[in-house]
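Can't paste images in this forum, so I'm doing it all in text. The chain is below; anyone willing to post the predicted structure tokens underneath?
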Amino acid sequence: MKEPGRFVLLRITGKYGGSVVVELNDSYVPGIPDVEAQLMVHNAFVAGVLDTSVDPRDLAGWAFVLDEVAAGRDAVWREASRVAEIGIRLDGREDDHDRITVTIADQQTTRLALSFEVDHGWIDEHRARLQALRTVWAHLIPAG
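Text version of the structure:
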């Protein structure tokens, strides 16, 4: 029997390579991801993995970022938070792709900006990932 893959909340992959991924660890409950995660960054110049976490309360902020970027505005997820923040800037929209810049900043010393060309539909894919996590974490998400 095949093991289920780890849950990926964020996966931005450029048409010409490079990626930014937030992948949640497996928990002790099958089908329910843990709050512990890894932030993975890769392109031709840099590659790195940072241990992080995703709290159920972070999901509303991620939904806000997706809405803002879809509307053409810059947004930052978990700004000035306990974990690395991720910002997304829409640099332009073409017929078949978006040009975006993703910034990652930890709370100590590191700030990184990566540019990507991504296929249209990437925001909808992320909304679907977000909804899937909200569904499996429904018992953990505060009401209100």
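Residues 18 and 43 are 4 Å apart (CA to CA). The mean pLDDT is 91.
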